[in-house]
Amino acid sequence: MIKRLWIVLMVALLVALPLAAQDSANTVSFNEVAFAFPASLGRNVSIVQVPGDAPTQEQPGGPVPPHTLFSIYNNAPAPNNLFEAFNAPLSVVAIRTADLAEYPMYQAQLDALNNLVSNRPDLNTFEVPSMGRLEDAAVDLPYLPVMNASQVIRAQANYITTN
User: Fold this and answer.
1) Residue 29 CA from chain centroid, whole number
2) What are the Cα distances from residue 88, in Å, to 41, 64, 70, 106, 137?
3) What whole-number distance in Å separates Cα of residue 73 and Cα of residue 87?
4) Residue 157 to residues 106, 125, 152: CA-CA distances in angstroms?
5) Residue 157 contacts by C-beta under 8 Å, 6 or more apart in sequence?
6) What is the DSSP letter of 66?
7) Which of 36, 56, 103, 143 has the most other CB atoms within 10 Å of its CB?
8) Residue-wise burial string across 97-109, b where 16 or more C-beta atoms lie within 10 A, e elsewhere
9) How far apart are CA 35 and CA 72, in angstroms?
10) Can you give the pLDDT at residue 29?
11) DSSP conformation letters of 94-154
12) Are 117 and 111 a contacting pair, CB within 8 Å?
């Protein structure tokens, strides 16, 4: 049985699943992570194992835990870090949940995500504009990886059931 290892993988797959019926799918399998994506999203896959930052490192957004970055793209150069990956049509960041205990900002997001999934509150309460104020953080949806930015727009939030 595979452990519950990866959070962000599910979010990225949500984006890709509606497109899967439109064309053939490519599959990726590396260590304990496997997923499929529509071929229309990219012809190449870059896999980078990122050692992460020291948990005590101080920087905006906090230190980043070790992770595996999968970037799907068409043209070189391949994205090779978390921030370049956001320019790729599809990026999957796989983070072992056991590694998050040393990273308080990430652990807090995981705890909030688990709480959201367990209690299933009405997601409409999260669909309000944010102006980046501290008081707006109460209605931020949990998000991994942690980004050094506020959630300005949140729309059409839904619960999904996966295997």
Assistant:
1) 17
2) 9, 20, 10, 23, 28
3) 9
4) 21, 10, 14
5) 123, 124, 126, 127, 141
6) P
7) 103
8) bebbeebebbeeb
9) 12
10) 94
11) E--GGGGGG-HHHHHHHHHHHHHHHH---GGGG-S---S-GGGGGGPPP-SS--SS-----
12) no
pLDDT at residue 4 is higher than 70: no
Q: Specify whether the CB–CB gap between 90 and 45 falls below 8 A.
A: no
Say if CB 57 and CB 106 are below 8 A apart: no
Per-position DSSP letters for 30-61, written without gaps between them: ETTEEEEEEGGG-SEEEEEEE----TT---TT
pLDDT digits (tens, 9 = 90+) for 40-77: 888 888 898 989 999 999 888 789 999 998 988 887 76
Residue with token string 């391949």: 78
β-bridge pairing 44-50 and 33-38: unpaired
For residues 132 and 152, is the Cβ–Cβ distance under 8 A?
A: yes
Note the pLDDT tens digit of each residue in 81-130: 666 666 677 888 899 999 999 999 899 999 999 999 899 998 888 777 66
